[in-house]
Amino acid sequence: MEQSGPDESGAAPGAAQVSPDVAEELRRMGLDPAAMGVPTGPPSPQASAQRPPPGQRQPPPGGRPPPGRQVHPHNQSPGGGQPPRAPGQVGPGVNSQKFPEQQGSSHTQVPQPSSWATTSATGGAGGPASVAGAMPQSVRRGGRTGLRGLGNVNSAGRAMAQAAVIERASARLRGARRVAFLSFKGGVGKTTVTALAGLALSSVRRGGVAALDADPDRGTLVRRLDSVQPPSIRDFLWRVYQSPQSDPRLLAHATPSGLLVLDSARSPILVDAPTPKELWWAVRTLERTCPVILLDCGTALTHPVTATMLKSVDAVVVVTTPSDDAVAACFSTLGWLERNGYEQLAKEAAVAITDVRKSRFDRRLHADVRRELGQRVQTVLGFGFDAGLVRGGVIELDRLSVTTREAALEAAAWVVSGHAR
Fold first, then answer.
1. Which domains, and CATH codes, for the chain?
2. What is the pLDDT of residue 11?
3. pLDDT at 116
4. 131 and 208 in contact (C-beta within 8 Å)?
5. b/e per residue 257-281 (b: at least 16 CB within 10 A)
6. Which tops the pLDDT comparison, 221 or 38?
7. Residues 61, 136: contact at Cβ < 8 Å?
8. Could you give the count of Cα atoms lying within 13 Å of 29 in the half-sphere of its Cβ?
9. Alpha carbons within 13 A on the beta-carbon side of 259
């Protein structure tokens, strides 16, 4: 089909124009949308206002409010009782089978401490810049660095596709989005996929994302996200009990990218592992300011902790490798969900395929398995081999391949929107 020449902006007539926020995101990654023929508007004044003048660094926040007495009992629930209930909140002792739906079109507004330089660039929790002003500049810059390599594209078409994925991943949410990552089989990369999705989300959304280790046997999520030991779920609840009016983001641990993370337990012997009610209450509390909650579940889907989460999540991601036994476990997981009252979760589930070896045979097997699983579920996410992931340890997005970072961003967009591109 013949097309007319570009207009004065360099864009093809009739081309979809990306929003100013997405255009600014591309510029942050080192792209010039106009030079690539991507039709854009001028940078939004709100996004431009967030960047300090050249050569000037934004001073870090003045400090955090003291979290109170640092008492962390191991064998009792926080404060020996239930935390104070906020207006309209359900206490943790209620035998609820599903999280109460969020009222209204946005989350409860939490008063910001005076030490935070807040901004209302796009307004509301979950907006692309809702937490940018609340985080130190070094945190925001660290999150940007991880996805900057995605900008090395050679065509306007690919840049437009990447901009669309970023826009989906940074879209505002009505209420909370709770997503569980699970599988009957261990060692398939479930924790790695959870961490990648969380890091990508926190980078493009500039905060408002939390990842919880919901494995009853204590997984390795925190070791993949940060070298600093974060508080456990029970520690976090105790801090909330001591400072009920504090912003929950100040009481949890934030990685350099701004992702909030909570461990299932501080001790390998699980003496302070959370109960189902405690995990429920932790998620319910984080939802006040974090519209996206990722749950790294274990392999025991019938465990009370995992069962409680499955009754409350909005979507699931089943993780597998291309091996025969892992694919069989993936089909078994989807079948178990259908037979045990989670038909809708199974119907709308995504499957993430991870490669732990690098060979032509594995790449062909990955493609074959992807086609096979595509007949069972609507969305299949692919994560190819990456030496930066296989070696273990803390994941650094800027050390991963562009393909892996693109896959992480696609997973992040699916978490928010519930569908692939």
1. 175-417 (3.40.50.300)
2. 47
3. 26
4. yes
5. bbbbbbbbbbeeeeebbbebbbbbb
6. 221
7. yes
8. 26
9. 31
